[in-house]
Every structure is written in structure tokens, then in C-alpha cells.
Amino acid sequence: MDIIIERIANGEDVTAMLEVWKQVFERELGIVLPQDNASNNTSHWLARLELSREPVGTLSVVDTSNQHQLHDSLGLGFDRESRVARFTHLAVLKSYRGKNIPLALMLEAHRSLIIPGQFDNTWLLFDVEKAANSFLSRQLRS
Questions:
Q1: pLDDT bucket at 3, cuts 50 / 70 / 90
Q2: Closest Cα to residue 4, out of 50, 58, 60, 54?
Q3: Helix (H), strand (E) at residue 61
Q4: pLDDT of amino acid 81
Q5: What angle do CA 61, 43, 99 make, to 5 degrees?
Q6: CA nearest to 110, candidates 101, 99, 121
Q7: pLDDT tens digits for 6-33?
């Protein structure tokens, strides 16, 4: 099973992203996301199965550089002059979890947005009960 990661580029991609959101956030977690999250000044990525092009995961990246009150409220402690981006709306369909798709999404966003955009810091809110044992946390500690 090969996965491709693509930056969302058209309405068909947005529709696919919204469907993943609906399955993961609404059906599994009971969280309804505002639809304007898909169209604001946020960059979005979509993980797809290479052969069928079936969407299996999403990631969004928001520039939070000037949101000092938010950073302070979370104890993030970034310098006021820093370029800061938040990884958010990380979602993978249940049957595709455990295949390192979140890491692939984050690496592609880092390669194609964070580095060229000269961001100094990135951050991601994560469920503390799951964080310690997650593959992503283990990789980041390495």
C-alpha cells in the first residue's frame, strides 16, 4: 500500500478532506468542525492511496506567528518575533491508522511549507493520555 501526500489544490480535494473530517471528527469523536476551516488562509494536505486515489488522511497548517495570547495561554513561550505554525486537523481514517500517515503528512508539510516559509517553530496539540506511547512522540524524542 503506497500513500501519496498532496497539498490541496482544488474543490475535489476540499470535498475529500471534508469527508475525512466528517468520518474522523464527527462520527468517531462527536466534534463538528466549522466548514470555514476548509477555506480560510490555512494550508491543507491530503493523504491518498496511490492506486485508487482514495483519501485516507488530512493535515492543516495555520500560521500563528502573531497569536501571542494563544501561545502564552498554552505555555508555548515562543519569541515574539518568531514565525510559528500550528499543525491541526490531523485525521486518519480508522482502517489506515498505524501506518505512519500522520508523520508522512507532517514531513511533507515541513518540506514544502515550513522550510520555504522560514518558520522558526511548529506546534501540535495532542491528547496527553495518548502522547507518551504514540509513534509520533517516540520519533520526535529520537
A1: very high
A2: 50
A3: strand 55-63
A4: 95
A5: 65
A6: 121
A7: 999 999 999 999 999 999 999 998 888 7
Is 99 strand, coil or helix?
A: coil
The average pLDDT across 123-131 equals 72
The three cell numbers locating residue 94: 480508522
Alpha-carbon gap, residue 55 to 20, rounded angstroms = 7
Burial of 105 (0-12, 13-18, 19+ CB in 10 A): buried
Q: Which residues contact 49 (CB under 8 A, 6 or more apart)?
A: 1, 2, 3, 4, 56
Distance set, CA 25 to CA 18, 28, 109 (Å): 10, 6, 21
For the chain, the distance separating the N- and C-terminal CA atoms, rounded to the nearest angstrom, is 26
Residue 124 and residue 73: Cα distance in Å, rounded?
A: 14
Query: Distance between CA 82 and CA 59 in Å, rounded?
Result: 22
Residue 125 neighbours by CB under 8 Å, 6+ apart: 74, 88
> Percent of the chain beyond pLDDT 70?
84
- The pTM of this model reads 0.85
Please compute the mean of the pLDDT values over residues 121-132 and round it to a whole number: 75
